[in-house]
Amino acid sequence: MSLLQFGNSWATRASEAGPPLSVRARALSPSGNTEVLVQEGKARGFRESGPASTAPRSPVASDYKGPHAVQSLSLHPVLVPRTLLPALCPGLAMAPTLPLLLALVTVVIPGPGGAQVSINPIEVFLPRGASLQVNCSSSCSENLNLGLETQWPKREVESELRWKLFELSDIEEDSKPLCFETCGTIQSSASATIILYSVPKHVELDPLPTWQQVGKNLTLRCLVDGGTPRSQLSVMLLRGEEVLYRQPVDVDRKNPKEITTTVLVSRDDHEANFSCRTELDLRPLGLALFTNVSMTRQLWTFDLPLTIPKLDTPDLLEVGTKQKVLCSLEDLFPASEAQISLELGGHTLISKSRNHGDLVLATALVEVTAELEGTQQLRCVLELANQTLIAERTLNIYSFSAPALTLSQPNVSEGNQVTVSCEASGGALVVNLTGAPLGTPSPKVEFPSPKVEFPLTARAKDDKEQLSCSATLKVAGQVLFKTRTLELQVLYGPYLDDSDCRGNWTWEEGSQQTLKCEARGNPPPHTLNCNRKGDGAPLPIGVVKSVSRAMNGTYVCYAESSRGNVTRDVFLRVVYYDPTLIIILVVMLVTVVLISTAVIYFYNRQRKIRIYKLQRAQEEAMKLKAQAPPH
After folding, report:
1. Where is this region: Disordered (predicted)?
2. How far apart are CA 235 and CA 278, in angstroms?
């Protein structure tokens, strides 16, 4: 007998034993696209599911109206897509006879005397861990033993002669509870299908690296624990709200499920939020779309150039000086997160750092002390993310003082001799000594030398002359120079030479003049005055606003200092003129000019008259010649 004939036979027997049952089955088409028609029982203890967003309600005892309610039992078809059957009913094989087998599951098995057992609900969707009330009823009229077989905890809620109401609790898996009966000596049973759904109980995105380098691949790994049915479950990896990767979770029931993808990191990903989201889409089953999101994880990215930081400072540093040290690096990201420090001789320098765009810069002011003398390492350490870039530079720290330039006497009198000495220290050598004319040393000195001495005979003109001594020091292959100068103090004077005070002056009466007379000497003369011989009349030194003829005469100028005194004769001649003579000369000059003008005028007038008369005579002669008859 074929399965189809077997099903029809059972349907016929059921209709004979009790209320009519509607049993329909549709075989799958060869293409596999035909939907399967599954029978669903409807009684007082079970209600059809409502809208897509409402889950089926479990039957309760108040819905049950006794064993006679089974008389109203009828089977109603529920269309289930073929693609959902493996997940919804894993125990059912997707074979051409599957629709028929599903129909047979729901058929009430008849007992003796027309008895039959039924289960309500026949098929139900529940969240994992939920409870369900199941009604087992029978039409058996004698020696009935009715029960429910299930793997879940159960308790009998209510019962009467031909039915029992059980409550199943803590349902954790898809299952098929079985109502069984013993009617006399005949046993029969009916089963229902419980299909569970659950959102993943744990969705976690693996911790991201503390820092991720730009241009490198980042692996995003999402761990999904739980979630059924798997065929309706998918996982998405997100950057913000952007979907980077989407993958359906296959029917593999391995838990937890790991989903991975790789992302090429860019600077735009800095401080971006990544997360993992699951979607359990039960809308095809008349339920809702359930989502679950992992904790958001923030990514920090960095980018470093191929170069090391740049150190900007001289290679040679002198003890006792202050030197600015600079370290910089461009093309790094994010520059604001970079830590940069400077070290000299193993000691961290106090530095100031700043950043602008993709540039970071650190500066420090180094006070070079004697403890640092020698070769020292200058280090610039830049730290960004988990990377460290180090730049090093060797500095030579030296001590080089200017040579000591001294005189055997701080002040030397004119004509006396003094010794000029120049001495270098710390390995330096004196290479030059210049200034006032120096004598020949004994013994003879050759340059360069650590110390040189020269004799000097002081002259008045050498006073305030600059003596100069130069020394050199070779450090790390470089030759350094330093010079010391000293002003020579020669005691002389006082002097009143012609260059200091001219001996002859000629001034015009009434004019303003300046008498320049200045005595020289070291120390400078404290007294200088000029008085006329005879009457002792003073001559002002400096500006004379109005010269008078009374100032005419010979003066004696006197200068005095702590070294002595000196005098000089000065002759002053005042030029003046008589006003009457000037008037006479002016009148005579005017008279001469007038007479000369008159003579020139009359001379020119007579010349013009003569020329005119000559021209008239020539014209008359020409007329007479023209009137004479020809011969």
Report:
1. 41-63
2. 4
Burial class (CB in 10 A: 0-12, 13-18, 19+), 418: buried
CA dihedral 156, 158, 161, 163 (to 10 degrees): -70
Asked if residues 98 and 2 have their Cβ atoms less than 8 Å apart, the reply is: no
Q: For 27-62, what is each residue's pLDDT tens digit?
A: 222 223 323 223 333 322 333 333 333 333 333 333
Query: What pLDDT is stored for residue 249 in this prediction?
Result: 83
Choose which CATH entry (3.40.50.300, 3.40.50.720, 3.40.50.150, 2.60.40.10) describes domain 3-197: 2.60.40.10
How many other C-beta atoms lie within 10 A of the C-beta of residue 388?
A: 10
When pLDDT is cut at 50, 70 and 90, the band that residue 613 belongs to is: confident
Above 90 in pLDDT, residue 105?
Answer: no
By C-alpha distance, which of 299, 333, 332 is closest to 209? 299
**How far is the C-alpha of 599 from the C-alpha of 602, rounded, in Å?**
5
End-to-end CA distance of the chain: 191
C-alpha to C-alpha distance for 203 and 527, rounded to whole angstroms: 108
Element (H, E) at 264: strand 257-264
DSSP H helices, 414-546, are none
Q: Report DSSP state, residue 223.
A: E
Q: Which two tokens stand for residue 244?
A: 């980077």
Which of helix, strand or coil describes residue 307? coil
Residues 166-216 have pLDDT tens digits of: 999 999 888 999 999 999 888 899 999 998 888 888 999 999 999 999 999
Q: ω into residue 455 within 30 of 0, thus cis?
A: no
d(CA 344, CA 209): 34
Rounded to 10 degrees, the C-alpha dihedral 100/101/105/109 comes to 80
Q: Are strands 339-344 and 374-384 parallel, antiparallel or unpaired?
A: antiparallel
The reply to whether the predicted model has a pTM over 0.70 is no
Q: For domain 496-575, which CATH number applies: 1.10.760.10, 3.90.226.10, 2.60.40.10, 2.60.40.2660?
A: 2.60.40.10
Query: Where do the CATH 2.60.40.10 domains begin and end in the chain?
Result: 3-197, 202-302, 310-398, 406-491, 496-575
Q: Could you tell me what percent of the chain has a pLDDT over 70?
A: 80
562 Cβ contact list (under 8 Å, min separation 6): 523, 526
Tell me the C-alpha distance between 193 and 124, whole Å.
7
